[in-house]
Amino acid sequence: MEEFTICFPLNSNYSDHISKWVEFAARKQVKKLKLDLGVKLPVHDNESSYEGFLASQGSTTSSTRLYWLTDLYLRGVDVDDEAMECLISNSPFIERLHVIDSQKLHKLEAADPASNLKYLELRHCENLRHLVISAPNLDIIKLFMSHRLTVVNISAPILSRISLGAYCYENFR
């Protein structure tokens, strides 16, 4: 299967259903997976985001099943450091990675295996403090944060476009 998209205002109350959709995508060897769960409705404002990405059978097993991914879009998915590391390590074909509104991501490292990564977008990842990327084919990077990253090391020899942005709630820390 080429592409699988889920675009609903869902939160952690629907984890079982969302995990089943991710497992379906893995079984179909989907290349482009888009989970856009970040649409907020007033009734869901105080509820937590979906936290089960790659957790249904253990991160390593599930991420290995997403081996064929070339494009991953996560919005409103609280992916943690371990799940993201496993995903990047076990998805050698990944070219595009979007992570938006993930509050559990503190550290993103793609040191060795990110040889095919061409596009990286990180937005509203409020707890991200550590970004280390070594990607020889990375051409575009977009970072939009409300805070400063404490560790940044980007090795991307053909990087041609960088978008940096900050948004303030009170103070840019």
Explain this structure:
Helix content is 17%, strand content 29%. The chain is α/β, with parallel strands linked by helices. Helix 3 links the parallel strand 3 (71-75) and strand 4 (96-100). It has three helices and ten strands, in the order βαβαβαβββββββ. It has one domain. The protein has a seven-stranded parallel β-sheet, with helices on one face. Strands 5-7-9 form a three-stranded parallel β-sheet. It has helices at residues 15-27, 59-65, 81-90, and strands at 3-7, 32-36, 71-75, 96-100, 107-110, 119-123, 130-134, 140-145, 151-155, 161-166. This is At1g61320/AtMIF1 LRR domain-containing protein.
Give me the secondary-structure topology:
Elements: E1 3-7, H1 15-27, E2 32-36, H2 59-65, E3 71-75, H3 81-90, E4 96-100, E5 107-110, E6 119-123, E7 130-134, E8 140-145, E9 151-155, E10 161-166
Parallel strand pairs: 1-2, 2-3, 3-4, 4-6, 5-7, 6-8, 7-9, 8-10
Pfam families: LRR_At1g61320_AtMIF1
Protein name: At1g61320/AtMIF1 LRR domain-containing protein
Organism: Rhamnella rubrinervis
